[in-house]
Every structure is written in C-alpha cells, then in structure tokens.
Amino acid sequence: MSATTTETGTATATATTELIVGGMTCAACVARVEKKLGRVDGVSATVNLATGRARVSHPAGVTAAELMAVVEGAGFTAALPEPEPGSEPEDGKDKDADAGATAGALTRLLVTALLSVPVLVLSMAPGLQFRNWQWLCFVLATPVAVWGAWPFHERALRGLRHSAATMDTLVSLGVLASYSWSAYALFFGGAGRPDMRMPFTLVPSMAGGTADVYLEAVVGVPLFVLIGRLLEARARHSTGSALRALASLAAKDVLVRDADGTERRVPIERLRVGDRFVVRPGERVATDGVVVAGSSALDLSLVTGESAPVEAGPGSSVVGGAVNSGGLLEVRAEAVGADTRLARIAKLVEDAQAGKAKAQRVADAVAGVFVPAVLAVAVTVLGFWLGAGASPQAAVTAAVAVLVVACPCALGLATPTALLAATGRGAGLGILVSGPQALEGLRRVDTVVLDKTGTLTTGSMAVTGVTARPDGLGAEAALRLAAAVERGSEHPVGRAVCAYAAAQGAGADRAAGPGGPEEPSSQPGPAGTAGARRTADGLVSSAASGSSAISGSSAASGSPVTPDAPALPGTPALPDAPTLPDVTGFTATPGRGVAGRVGERLVEVVRPDAGPATAAPAGRKPGKSGQKARTRKGQPVPSDGDRLPQVLAEAVDAAGRDGRTAVVVRVDGTPEAVIVLGDTVRSGSYRAVDHLKRLGLRPVLATGDSEGAARAVAAELGITEVHARATPEDKAALVRELRARGRRVAVIGDGVNDTAALAGADLGIAMGGGTDAAIGAADVTLVREDMGALADAVRLARRTSATVRTNLAWAFGYNLVTLPLAAVGLLSPMVAAAAMSVSSVLVVANSLRLRGWQPVPSRAAAGRGSRRGPAAPGAHGSHASYGSHGRSAAAPASSRGDA
Looking at residue 44, which CATH number applies to its domain? Predict the structure, then answer.
C-alpha cells in the first residue's frame, strides 16, 4: 500500500499519509499523538491503538519526514509502512522484526518471573519466612524494579520530557514508590530486623508500628503488567489475522508463458497486464485475469467467502488468490498490483480498521485526561491520610494502590479491538465495511431499498423457452436462424440466444422438430385455447394443433425444470447443432431488434410490438401481401401476415404475466417463433429477505424494470412495497422521502444507476460484482455476491455493537469501582496490579470472541433459500433493442439501463 495519497482540490492540495507509531501503550498515548499532530497547521490525524497506525491528513507541502519528526517529538517512534506486500524479503523482514520484539518481551517476562516468584511466595506465606528473608527479597526485587520495569520507566521519562503522563507513568511511579518505601522500611523503619515476620493480608493495615515492606508490590506490579501486555499484544495481533491472511493469498511468483510457448517463473512484481501465465492444479491464481485456455474449478472460499467451487473456462474471469482445484489453466492478466481485487479487498479492510468509531472517540477523550486526574487523586489521597493521622505506611500504600489500579488501557482497547476483530471476521464472510461508521450504520438501519437486476437476481439473461407456430418452420429451425442473426449482436438478448442454441446442440433439453408429433396434454389450457398446455417454464404451446416448443433447461436458464411440468413427451430429439449459417446485411435497430439475411431469407429477431421491416428480402416486395407497408401517425401497422398467431400471442402474454422478456423471430416478415428470456433470482435472495424481516428491517424493491417484472420478483420473495420503472433520480428521491419520514435507510445496488441512491442513503451497500462507481459510493461491499450476506452483515454489526458496549461498561465500571477502593485503603498494591492487568486482558479477550462468530441461519429461511424450482424472474425489459410485452397489449420497457 502506498504510504501517501494526494488529492487536489479547488483551494489547496491535500495528502493522506499513514505512519506506524511505536511506543503507544494506552489511550492517553493516542490522545497525545493526535494532539501533537493537530497542532501543525492544516493537519488532522486519526490514531488507532489496536493497529498502532496513524492516518494523517495534511497539506501537500508538509512532508512525511516532518510528520514523523512531530510524532517523535511527542516521545514515540514513527515510520512509514512497508510497500504493498508482494515480495518475500519484505514480508520476512516484518516477521523477523515482530519475532524479535516478541522474543525480547518474553525474555524480560521470564527473568522477571524467575526473580519475582520467590519474593511473592515469601511475602504471602508467613510460615516460610526465615531469618533475614526480607533482605533476600530485597536483593531479588532490585533488578526487577530497575531492569524488569525499565520499559515503563523509559516511557515515563520520555513522557516527562514532553510534559505528558501515560499509563507507564502510573506503573513507574507505583513501582518506584513501593520500592522506595520498602528500602526506607528496611534501613530506617525497623523492618530489617533478622527475626521480622510480616503477615499477608489482601487489605492493607492502617495501623502504625513497625513499617512493612511492599516488595511483593515491587515485583508483582511489573510482573502482572508485563504478562498483561504480552497477552494483550498477542490478542491484538490475532485480531488482525484476517488482513494478514488476505495478504498471504497474494502469489510471490508466477509461471509466465511467452508467445513462443516457453515458460519461465518470474517474481509477481514483473507480471504485466496482457501477459499470459499458467496456473497448475493446486496453485493459486497469480492475479486477476481471463482464462484463454483450459478449464477447471476454482476455490474462492478464502477470497470471497463462497464455499462452492466455481467453474472456469475460456472467457471466464478469475480472481487472484483463488486456488485451482482441477485442470491446467492459461490466463491473460487483466490487473496487477494494487489494481487487483484481492489488493482492493485488503485495502478496504485496512481502511476500515484504521477508522475510529464515535464510542472510541469518547473513550479516547476520557483517557486523555484520565492519567493526570489519577495523579492528582493519588497526591490527594496521600495528603488526606497523612492529615487524618494515619501512619505514613498506610498513606503511601493507599497512594500506590491508586496509581497502580488505574487502567486507561481498557478504555483505549475497548472499541478498536472489537472493530478490528469484526472487520476481519466480516472479510472472511465476504463482507467488507469501509469503517466503523459503516458498522454503526448497519446496526441502526430499519429499511433496506433493494435493486432488482444484479442484486436480487443474477443480472444475466437466459432463454427460458421457445414456442413455434404450428404450420411454420419449427422451433429448431427458428432458433437456429435467430442464433445466426444474433451472433453479430453484443446485446444481452443476443448473447443469451446464442448461448441457448449452443446448449441445445450440446445435449440440453430438447423438444419437437418441425412437424414433430406431439401427445395431447391432459392439462387444461388457458381460456379460449383448446388443448393448449403449459411447458416446464410456464410458456404456452398448443399441443393439439401440432405447434413445437423448446423449454428452457437448467443448463440454459439456471432454473431447474419443475417436476409437475415435464418436457413434452414423444418428440424426436434435435440433431447435434450444425454450424450456424452465414449472415449478410446485419443491422441492429435500437428499440426494435436485429435483422440479417440468411441466404435469400430476411430473418428478424424483434420486439413483439415491432412493426414490419422497412426493407424486404431480395426478390420480394414489402409486406407479405405484396403491398407497401402501412403506417398510422408515422408508426408502422402490422399487416395480416405480421400479426402473431394465437399460440405465439399466448406465449407472449404468458411471458408478460411472468415478468419475462419475449422476442419474435420473423422469417420473410412471417412470425415463426417466440423466444422468451428472463433473469433468475439469486438463491440467496430468499434467505436474505426472510432474515431481514426477522431482524426487523423493512425491504423495499426499487427497480427500473417494468411493473410486471418487478411485481413478479417481489411476489416470489415476499416484498410488499415495490417501485417499478424508477430512474436513478427516482431512487434517490425515494431514499430522501424515506429518510424524511424518520427511517434509517440502507440501499443495496450494483450499477451506475444506483450510485446516487447509494450515496444519499444512511448506508450504501454494493454487490462485489457491481460497477466501480457503485462500490466507490457504498459503505459496505458484499464480495461473495450472496444476498444472504446482507443479513449476516446486520447480525455482525449488532454483535459488534454489543461487544463494544460490554467492553466500555467493563472499562468504565472497573475504574469507577477500584479507584475508590484503593483510595480508602481497601486494596493492596499487588492486588491492584493484578486487577489492572486482568481488566485489559478481559477486554481484548471479549473482542476476540468476534473472530469465531458464525451466522446462524433460520431453518425456515434456509429451506426457502435452497428449494428447487424456477425462480420468478425479472425481465430485462429495459434493454435498448428489446422490450417486455404486457399482459394483453404491448408494453414497451423503459428506455433506461438495467435496474
């Protein structure tokens, strides 16, 4: 990751620099770094204790070296982060540095424990005390007080030079005060007598007499604090494991295949866009690209959270970091370095963890004045007990206990550790949040505005059935001619028709060829259609009249055929797909369709309400009757030959009722077949909508598609509020209206047309496969493109909020209870040190529970989400060249882009 990014504005250029800050131990340190950086003109900083990083916004004229000097002037270390991980030496260097620091801390802890245990045992067990035992303890405690506690003394002195007090100041003063009092007691207070015995009490004595030694506090305070810091550091390191796991997915080298076929392994940094590389079974895909040869199944579980392997073949897009589970792949690189999807995911997670929640800002503000306040309280307690006539020993004990028991660390760690663990866990589940504010927003939303195409549905068109006229060319011939013409189109309808024709020839479900015999159906047909029957996808075909139909299979449409509507029986199979014929004179007319000549025939694939062609085929006059095409008010009027036969009209009407798109195949101006296409609902959409309702959220469907398409999807998913034919402006206005009513609104979408609504909502959520504009405007991105992840995100946000509240309640409650107890002399310094260390460890351990959080799906919802059968699709009636047909009359789709 680049350490510095620059933004140019109308007034002055600003930059953002990220620094690694060392030496921070509590929230007071965070406050001091932010305060020092904030004193520089035009500079603002956000410092995160859990990650040890500072994100600094500053004028472009301020250099990183100047910022680091300011941080170092505050008594801390500062450095720029390493470049984007991708080479082994850098990763190894970071690991060596971390290992060295951990080893040093562990060595100090072990030596301190070795010296401290005898002192603690002898001080707490009077029966083990022997002559001059206290002098042995004094000898053992001295290196602990000096060397063992040296990190606290060093940071306290550094803070003193900068007129600042931190948690280390409290620990250092507590150790020095206990050691000094013990030395005074041994040398001048009578505690050095060879036969001196000291009883152990949890509550210190307020009586006078012979001065006691507090050597157990001298060794206990640094020992417990060192243990707490080590456990805390390991726990904080664990909370960032998700980000490190993402970084570890990046390949270190790649097998590049040159134009002459030779292969060579090179470092990943030398891979360039356009290079071709080989992915062997078991290897990771080096970077984002497109498969040019080979086929395999890819495991994306560590990248997007998808558990099922994804098939990849020529033309398929692949994601860097995915594991090749099958055959050999040759891939053309489409993105490298920071532009890859994996790098963007890691950047989003890192940005989220660098942010600061509102609760954390409050805690940091409290912690900023906490240490000075504790010092003032300790001095006040000392003076009060001395003034009240208590012995100096009692007064010092109470003051030392106040210094030691105070713990701003818990305040500083309560929120960032929870957010760190939650964002990491979210990344593992395919949920990326832009920052703490996004998690807070997820917890508060009560209304979710859902886009349809690409969000609730797959966003890709598929043919769901073909119905041919009974006395015409037949379904197979019409489909073959349509695919030949559509081969020259880049429109989604054209791609779907070609794909379906290829699937049919490859052995997909087939129906009658031209004039093939059909068995009569026992199912009643629609009113006025004797002997008509409904095919597997809900399309109407006339079995009695001998019409032929091809119904969409699961392979083609993505929806299995329902068992109560089998494919037509007793029909001959289509032959293997022959080579599609050549097409000449191809034209694509926006709002109408495509046309071209196959031999001497004019083949058109057009909207059901499209007028006759303006150009007749060679050797034929316009219109089937040989007359000139008629017009009414400038619009073409279909001739008798152009009007749809009853069976085709019924198929179009059925498509309109089901919210699907129908196109008509015309050959020489005669309607020969109707091809019906539709979008399919994502399997996770059922579970997502059901879970959102269970969580108390109200789903609202807003789409640019037709009313029929929108209502069909809404009815299937159980959504009651629908806004169809909504433009981007309409969606943004809907969001404003809902917010004006007091609703807290989240918007989920995937297209450019959703950007305004995403930006205007309380919370924007984008699908991972959406456009860059949509993802950029969103606060949350669902990487695995599973709508079920939305409900998981809400649950995770609520669990995180509960964890933060628990942490803060403990941190504030601990200090509110223990400080008064220490001030009145009811806590010994050693017990106070143990309590202070435990408080920090408990806060971090509670946050770590989020790492293992698992969404628990409802059985009912899971049953709905996994059920078989064709999902009610939404129509792509908004395409430029095609439209949806209404129930009984033509209903042109909206002219805008996909919803």
Answer: 3.30.70.100
Alpha-carbon distances, residue 44 vs 17, 38, 54 (angstroms): 11, 5, 10
Work out how many domains the chain is built from and give that number: 5
d(CA 189, CA 192): 8
Is residue 288 located within the same domain as residue 197? no
Structural domain contains residue 887: no
Q: What is the extent of the structural domain holding 539?
A: 464-616
Question: Quick check: 148 pLDDT over 90?
Answer: yes
Q: How far apart are CA 568 and CA 518, in angstroms?
A: 7
Q: For the chain, give the mean pLDDT.
A: 74
Residue 776 in any domain: the answer is: yes
In terms of domains, do 508 and 551 share one?
yes
Burial 34-64 (b: 16+ CB within 10 A, else e): bebbeebeebebbbbbbbbbbbbebeeebeb
> Quick one: 495 exposed, middle or buried, by C-beta within 10 A (0-12, 13-18, 19+)?
middle
Angle, CA of 699, 493 and 885, to the nearest 5°: 65
* Cα-based distances in Å from 730 to 434, 459, 705, 820, 848: 26, 21, 13, 59, 43
Could you tell me how many helices (H) and strands (E) the chain has, helices first? Answer: 27, 32
* Beta strands 323-324 and 447-450, pairing class: unpaired
Count of positions (residues) in the chain: 899
738 has pLDDT over 50? yes
Place of tokens 């001030």: 823
Same domain, 97 and 61: no
What per-residue confidence (pLDDT) applies to 408?
65
Instruction: Give the residue among 608, 580, 575 at the shortest CA–CA distance from 486.
Output: 580
Within 10 A of 131 (CB to CB), how many other CB atoms are there? 10
3-class DSSP state of 23: coil
Q: In the chain, pLDDT over 70 holds for what percent of residues?
A: 69
Q: Are residues 373 and 227 in the same domain?
A: yes
Query: Hey, is 361 helix, strand or coil?
Result: helix
What mean pLDDT is predicted for residues 585-606? 86
Q: Look up the pTM and report it.
A: 0.58
CA distances from 263 to 87, 330, 816 (A): 21, 11, 68
Percent of the residues in the chain that have a pLDDT greater than 90, as a whole number: 18
Asked if residue 589 is part of any domain, the answer here is yes
Catalytic residues: 451
Q: Write down the pLDDT at residue 61.
A: 87
How many beta carbons lie within 10 A of that of residue 733, not counting itself? 16
Alpha helices in 506-661 (DSSP H): 554-557, 646-657
Give me the mean pLDDT over the 504-525 stretch: 38
Chain segment 186-244, per-residue pLDDT in tens: 998 788 888 888 776 665 555 555 567 778 878 887 887 787 677 666 655 654 555 56
Is 653 part of any domain? no
- CA dist 17 and 162 (Å) reads 24
More confident residue, 320 or 112: 112
Question: Does residue 815 contact residue 407 with C-beta atoms inside 8 Å?
Answer: yes
Q: What DSSP letter does each residue of 643-706 carry, written as one string?
A: SPPHHHHHHHHHHHHTT-EEEEEEETTEEEEEEEEE--B-HHHHHHHHHHHHTT-EEEEE-SS-
Cβ–Cβ < 8 Å for 725, 708: no
Q: Are strands 763-767 and 745-749 parallel, antiparallel or unpaired?
A: parallel
Asked if residue 710 has pLDDT above 70, the reply is yes
Q: Is the pLDDT of residue 773 over 90?
A: no
Q: Which of 694, 15, 803 is nearest to 436 (CA)?
A: 803
**Residue among 459, 445, 341, 423 nearest 791 (CA):** 445
Nearest Cα neighbor of 352 from 410, 439, 430, 414 is 439
Do residues 201 and 75 share a domain?
no
